[in-house]
Design a protein that fits this description.
Helix content is about 70%, strand content about 0%. The protein is built from 4 helices and no strands. The protein starts with a helix and ends with a helix.
């Protein structure tokens, strides 16, 4: 478990360092891209909310969970 904890603590420290050096989202993303490769999951996790990939919005129709609730 300490390996996982060390990894997370390092990631949080890296994020904190980047936050301390920036004042806006664009600069934050630029520094994160310098820190990690473009396909690195740590960078992808940061970029997901910005690109809309974290919570994709369905353009039409109802949410399946709404339909499931109505059937119960």
């Amino acid at each position: 478990m300490s390996e996982l904890r060390d990894y997370i603590e390092k990631y949080v420290q890296d994020l904190t360092d980047i936050l301390e050096r920036t004042t806006d989202d664009e600069a934050f993303l630029d520094l994160a891209e310098e820190k990690w490769k473009l396909d690195d999951p740590r960078l992808l996790a940061i970029k997901a909310p910005v690109s809309g990939q974290l919570f994709p919005v369905e353009s039409e129709g109802t949410d399946k969970s709404d339909t499931d609730n109505e059937q119960n």
